[in-house]
């Protein structure tokens, strides 16, 4: 649950979207970095042509993704992993569908796609892994129902599977950070979540991804356990180092 998740989510998304395409079966028409001609006209250059889309700058694509998808679905406020699963779904199938599916899997009315305060609260209270799995399951069912599944199905199925694995790793990393971080005691000065989740969060996410990859590659269970244990230790060490620095700053300011 941090704006810091956006660069990671965007990098993963761009790896799936690729560069310029203009497939006759793609209703979006000329597309670059996953941005359609329609969106490029709406956000960057009215009256743009396929030539303009082909010459699109990556920075323009990033701004569109941030405004139309990430911010529109309040992904900064969603749990780690859930934010990425919802974001990628919104880009692939529209924010309206992604928002409604998020509400539906959280047992909330899906007569609107708005990611409201109630949706955010429900997402934070729910098990992130279960939410991710439910979103990806529904997403795959929807894609399989489309007439173009025969053309794009293999790629879509692989993308959903990869999004699921990455999102679950992100959720596992966030869980490791919470487990490793002791509860603040009396007299502790509150700080922003982003500061607490800096190096410790990076260690946890990297460790979770490593464990996931090792498991997928058939590594022995003992190897995966060692990776998890080392990740927890490193994340805890990073958090303790941060707390020491905070205490030193507080004592110096006293």
Please describe what this structure looks like:
The protein is mainly α. It has two domains: 5-180, Up-down Bundle (Chitosanase, subunit A, domain 1), CATH 1.20.141; 182-249, no CATH class. Helix content is 69%, strand content 2%. It contains twelve helices and two strands. Helix 9 packs across helix 11 (199-216), helix 9 (149-180) packs across helix 12 (221-253) and helix 11 (199-216) runs antiparallel to helix 12. The longest helix has 33 residues, at 221-253. The two termini are 32 Å apart.
Strand content: under 5%
Q: What's the CATH architecture of the largest domain?
A: Up-down Bundle
Structural class: mainly alpha
Shape: globular
Number of helices: 12
Instruction: Provide the helix percentage.
Output: 55-70%
Number of separate strands: 2
Give the name of the CATH superfamily of the largest domain. Answer: Chitosanase, subunit A, domain 1
CATH topology of the largest domain: Chitosanase, subunit A, domain 1
Largest sheet: 2 strands, antiparallel
What is the residue-averaged pLDDT?
Answer: 80
Number of domains in the coordinates? 2
Strand order of the largest sheet: 1-2
Rg computed from alpha carbons, rounded to a whole number of angstroms: 20 Å
Distance between the termini: 32 Å
- N-to-C SSE string, H for helix and E for strand: HEEHHHHHHHHHHH
CATH class of the largest domain: Mainly Alpha
